[in-house]
C-alpha cells in the first residue's frame, strides 16, 4: 500500500475504542512520523497502545475554559484535529480549527459534558437536529478549512452506503447506471426510485465470555457515548409520504426542517426492522446525525421552500445481547447510568459479527439491504486494537481524512456532501463482506394474527404503522 504524505501534525482528542483503533490505520495509510502525532484525552485508557506506537499521550480533560490553551501548542495551520471524544464540544473545536487554519473531522457532533441531559434545556435543544444546525451555522460562502462533521460508521459511512445502494437499485430496476454528480441529482434519483423509508439497520452479535452482571452496562463501543445517545430524544428524518405525525412527535421550526423528534428517549423507542443476519428484529430508534443528514440530502424542492420529496430515515439498532440487557436496565433506572461500565474488545469471543447497512424500502423491489458484514475474527486479522464494531468506524475515519486532505478548503461539510467513491475506496477493505440483499419483508408482516392491532392505513412504509414504544 502506498502511503499518502502528510507533513503536518495530527492531534487526536479522545482515546477510547475508536481512538485506539484509528492509530494503527493512521500509520498504515499516511507517511507520518510518530513525533507528529499527539493524543489529548480525559483518562488513561489506551496509554499502553500510544506507547506501543511511540505517540505522545497527554492526560488532560478538555473543558470550555481550557481547550484553547490545551490545543494551542499542537494544532495550527495545516494540521489535522481528529475529535474522537465524548463530552467535548464539536462546535468549539471546529471554530478553533477554522480560526487556526486546521483540518477537522469528528465521528459525532458532541456538546460539552452534561448538555445531553441538562433538564434546564428543552427536549428540542437536546436533539441531534439542534447540534447539527449549530455546526452547520459555521458554514461560510468563502473557502474555509475543511471540517467533516459526523463521519464515523453511523453517522458517516452509511451515507456512502446509501449512494451505492441507490446506484445498484437504479441498475436493477432499469433506471440506468449514471452516477449523480450533485445533491439535486442524488435526491431526484431517490425520488425516481420511490424510496419511502431508509433504516440504518444494524445487528451486533458479538459477545464476551464474562456476561453482563446486574448494575453494569456492557457494550462493544463507547458506553458513555451510547448512554448519551440513548438519553437524547428519539429522532428521525421525516418523509413526504407520511400522513400524520406519530404520537408525541414534534417538528422543528428552523433550519432544514428535515426531521422530527419524539418526547421520549431513544432507549424507550423500539421499531420493527430487518437485517440479513437476523431477518425481522426489534431495534431501537437511537438518535443519530445520519437520520437527519440523509433525509436532508435526499430532499427534492420546488424553489427554496416547498418540499416535493423526502424519505423517512432513522437508525434501527439491535446492539449486542449484553448491551440489550444493559438498555433494559437503563430504562428501569429511568436513564441513570449503571454504577459499572465495561467496554468489551479484546475479550470478545470468536464468531460474532457486526452487520451494519441501509435498508431502502418502498421501491418496486420492496426492500433492499446493503452494507457490511464484519466478523470479530476478520476485524482482528485486518487491524490490531479493533473489534468488528470499531473497525467499521475507524476505516471510515481514514477515508474521510484522505478526502479532507485532498480538499482542504471545503469548509463545514456533512458526510453526504463528499465523494462517496473516495471514502469507499479506502474503507471497503475494512468492511468485511459487502452485501446487497433483497427481501419481501414489510413492517406489517405477522401483524394482527394473534391479537388485533389498530393499523391506521394499509401503507406499510408509513411510520405510525410500525413504531413500538
UniProtKB/TrEMBL annotation:
Q: Residue limits of the Saccharopine dehydrogenase-like C-terminal domain? A: 152-435
Q: Where in the numbering of this chain does the Saccharopine dehydrogenase NADP binding domain appear?
A: 10-143
Q: What is this protein called?
A: Homospermidine synthase
Q: Which Pfam families match?
A: Sacchrp_dh_C, Sacchrp_dh_NADP
The protein's matches in InterPro entries, at most eight in alphabetical order, are given as: Homospermid_syn-like_C, Sacchrp_dh-like_C, Sacchrp_dh_NADP-bd
